[in-house]
Structures are given as structure tokens and as C-alpha cells.
Amino acid sequence: MINPSEYIKEHIRTVPNWPQEGVMFRDITPLLQNPKVFRVLIDMFVHRYMDQKIDVIAGLDARGFIIGSVLAYELNLGFVPIRKKGKLPFHTVSEEYELEYGSATVELHADACKKGERVVLIDDLIATGGTMMAGKKLLERLGAIVVEGAVIVDLPELGGSKLIKDSGLPLFTVCNFDGH
Fold first, then answer.
1. Fewest Cβ atoms nearer than 10 Å: which of 105, 134, 150, 172?
2. Distance between CA atoms of 134 and 23, rounded to whole angstroms?
3. For the stretch 79-106, what's the b/e string if a residue is b when 16 or more beta carbons lie within 10 angstroms of its beta carbon?
4. What's the CA gap between 41 and 35, in Å, rounded?
5. Are 177 and 11 in contact (CB under 8 A)?
6. Is this prediction's pTM over 0.90?
7. What are the residue ranges of helices labelled H in the chain?
8. For residue 45, which of 1, 5, 9 has the smallest C-alpha distance?
9. What are the pLDDT digits (tens) for 70-120?
């Protein structure tokens, strides 16, 4: 029997030099296209969180929406999207963060969660950790308790997982890739 993490990792495509020279992009679309692999991935997350006291799943724009909404459905929980600036139609709170190549801003509806709600924050990949840290800050600003961050892929050499863990947020990763 193959290790589920290794099975998932085998279905992630590496695209060299995208979006720029020197970057090894980890593409999760092949695992999403294969129903068996996608089921194994979702089941890993479901089994991790099914007996925890979680109130809502929050997903980071955009691939965190795919995993997060399916996970929320499977756990019978609500789903909260954390979007790039200017994409949400209602009153929002925002958080700017640094990227490797500049800065960006994410937003959350001001009524997305209630004080004391326990949230799992999910995305496809953690690189420098800026996006997840911004999402965590937004949720906490609304009074939520971010129980754990969760991603499919960790790129540990970029320091994001260390940043997240050093902030006090537990982090669950399905698989790691060395290098960028």
C-alpha cells in the first residue's frame, strides 16, 4: 500500500520557469483532474478534521476555494472565501502582505464569521507564508480562532511553513517539495 502523501505528490506536476525564470511551479491541476486522487486528498483532510470542533472552513484565493469548499461540504460546515482585493461585493476588511515580487491584498467579508468560531484556513501551497498569515490576521480581526492552517504542498526552503509555525499557528501539510 502506498503512502497517501506520496500518492498525492506523484500527481503534482512541476512546471519549470513559470511564472518566471528559475521558479519551479507546483501545479495541482493533475490531481484535481483524477477523481481517485482527488478523493484521496479530500479524505485526508476530512479524516483530519472530522472529530475536531471546527465551525467553518476558510479558503484562500483561488485554489484554496477548490479544496476548502469540498472539505466544508464533506464536514457539513460553512465555507468562507478570502479573496484578492476588489472581488467581494459587500463590506470587507483587508490585509496587505508581501510577496517575493511585491505586495498584494486579500479581503474578507466583515460578517464572514462570528467571534469565537473555530476555523481551519486552507490553501493549495505554502511558499513564503504571506497569504496564509494575511488570512489568519483577517479571521482573527473578526474574532475567529484559527485552529490550524492546512495546505497540500509545502515549499520549506522558502520559509513560509516556519513563519506560520513561529506565529503559533499549527500547520498541516500533505507533502513537501525541495527547492522553489
1. 105
2. 23
3. bbbbbeeeebeeebbebebeeeeeebeb
4. 10
5. no
6. yes
7. 4-10, 29-33, 35-49, 63-75, 130-141, 160-166
8. 5
9. 999 999 999 999 999 999 999 999 999 987 667 999 999 999 999 999 999
